Amino acid sequence: MTTSGISRRGALRMFGIGALGAVGAGVLGACAPSGAGSPSNGGDPKSKDFDFTSWSLNEEAAKPSIEKIIAAWEKAEKSTIRAVSYPYNEYLSQLTLKLGGGETTGAVHLDIAWLAAMAQMGKLVDLGSVAGKGGYTDVALKSGTYDGKHYGLPWNTGSIGVIANSQLLEKAGIKEHPTTVEEFESALRELKGLGGGVVPYAAATKVAQLKDIFPWMQTFGCAMLDGGKVTIGDDASVDAVTWYKKLHDEKLIAADVDRFDARALFGQGKAAFYDDAIIGKGVTSAQSKDKTLADAMQPMERPVLKAGDTPQALLWGGVIAIVKGKGQDAATEFALHTTTDRATTSEYFAARALPPSTTAGLAAPEVAKDTFTTEWTRKITSTATGSPFWQFAQNAQIEEAVAKQVQAVLVGKSKPKDAMKQAGEEAAALIKR
Amino acid sequence: MTSTTPTPVSAVGRPQPSATRAGRGTRRRLRKDLLRSRIAAWSAVVVIGAFGLLPVYWLLATALSTPESTFQFPPKLVPTDLTLSNFTALAENDQLINYMVNSLVVASITAVLSVIVATYMGYSFSKFRYRGRRSLMHLVLASQMFPQALLLVTLYTVFSSFGMLNTYSALVLSFTTFTMPLCVWMLKGIFDTIPDALLEAASIDGASRWRTLHSIVAPLAAPGMIAAGLFAFVRGWNDFIFALTLAGKEKQTLPPGLVSTYIGEFQTAWPQLMAASLVVSVPVIVAFMFLQRYLVGGMTAGSVKS
């Protein structure tokens, strides 16, 4: 026998060693740093110096304006802010690890979809006493709330809604935005008649972005979660997916489309509608060769099932949360200043086209004169709601489980009823975990 | 019945017309077969080559394109709007040089450390017999069985406890954790091929075990050691998740650095990302050009036992 060959005995030995290793890893895991397991991440809460963690601090478009805000604060308060950043796609996992491990302190920029998961770690300060002073809009204030407590001061509050290309609509003879699902379908057929490879609605059809179907499910009357019970699988969700499949089969929406593809199609005048956040206008028009596209982009209320229903949209935006521990008080003041100071929010809006979260900020002339933003806020954000699944740490897995089932329907591998039943069961199982 | 007519002198040695036709047919068939097999072989080469080189071509094409043409739908195989601005923009980004220096430092130290430790361990496993040797060998291999994410949490906690986060040491030690098992087994395989008689001869000549390893065995195993070092270097150079988690802003290496710089919440600066990827790949490509023969030789050196 060669010395390097692995016999059955050797394999068993390896298994035993592996098990021992796992126990060892567990023991090592117990050697937690000071902040782990403690509600505070340590340090002097009265310290003037603190950390500010934000994914935007790495991004070319956002970095200069945020650095400017930081520099102004440091100069005025004679303090030092240490900037910390992780890429957006890795942000949640890095923050979970580092907040739990006691490394993260100070102010933390959070996507509103992550607030609940972070708040559940018990390390965030309840900002209830400060939130009332900010003059935030009701929708914005709600976006920073979890379990009745204000864990985040809203920085930018927007939503994900439908954007229309007025030039294409005009070409197809559509004079007004469709308001009901039926009208929307007719408009899509008119647009398809234009030919030239136009995809009437560049809706998400790839798993990575198929969570965009949630507002459509809500449009058809599915609450998704009702009193802790997952309702995906009910008749409304089945109707929504059946309708989506119909659009797919009639080529009114295209296969294999995610947000990036949708922007590319829309940017080249090959799509008349697509779903995006409010910032989509700037991103898509920047990618387009057509310099008149920005003027042709219009926010559209998501069509409703029957006249009088509330248009559905997903709330979207960012909040600043404060970690208990070093620099907590100064970081709170910084967060309040950054999110409410009119000059600061106006300047930030001018640089990034992200709408402020305060009534005064939205009324500022620099913001008010931007028709796209004001229209978007009035038509879409005003009725937007957060996903009921955000409160669960397994949110991403739930979205993926539903998305996979919807895709199975689109490619004809599953019937809508069976797929939604399966999706509902998987989501319920994930919630229980 | 055979013909008695004498065969003309001029016809002697000349094949019969029918035989000539048959011979020509065979040759034609052979030529056709040869041509077919050549076409098949070249087609395979082209397909495999395209599989390997198209991504590189795409990287280069994107690096030379404008952002607008990158998002063109349907995409164009040959870019028309060529620009060097993505490369010139790199020169303005000091941070990239910092990431590159960090990557070079961390990957080089990982390679050297992995080879040093793996040489002693591999030699010990190969040439010495002692209690627990096989268990130790399997223990080394067992560390490869854990999902990286699981070890990441553990290593993060340990490094945090020892105040080692945001240091080169944390990166080097974590990378070495993953490179060592393969390096040890690779070098053990190479040491197995070195005959024990050579070691005995050295011993008879008065060489100590230490001297035998350093002066006789190590030079013979040099290609394998270089291969192991290259493997460790590439592992350290490419790592993303450990570098992102354990290194702070100042010690950030290229993979997380590039992702942080060019992949954002709303969009990805593909042309700049591709240009940066191309430029930072140059040192690794150069290293491979010089050392690839050792890599191939070293990887296969222990595979055949005499």
UniProtKB/TrEMBL annotation, chain B:
The chain crosses the membrane at residues 39-60, 99-123, 135-159, 171-191, 212-234, 269-291. Residues 1-27 are annotated as: Disordered. CDD domains: TM_PBP2 (cd06261). It comes from the Bacteria. Its main location: membrane. It is a multi-pass membrane protein. Pfam families: BPD_transp_1. Residues 100-291 form the ABC transmembrane type-1 domain. Keywords: Cell membrane, Membrane, Transmembrane, Transmembrane helix, Transport. It is found in: Cell membrane. Belongs to the binding-protein-dependent transport system permease family. This is Carbohydrate ABC transporter permease. It comes from [Kitasatospora] papulosa. The lineage of its organism: Bacteria, Bacillati, Actinomycetota, Actinomycetes, Kitasatosporales.
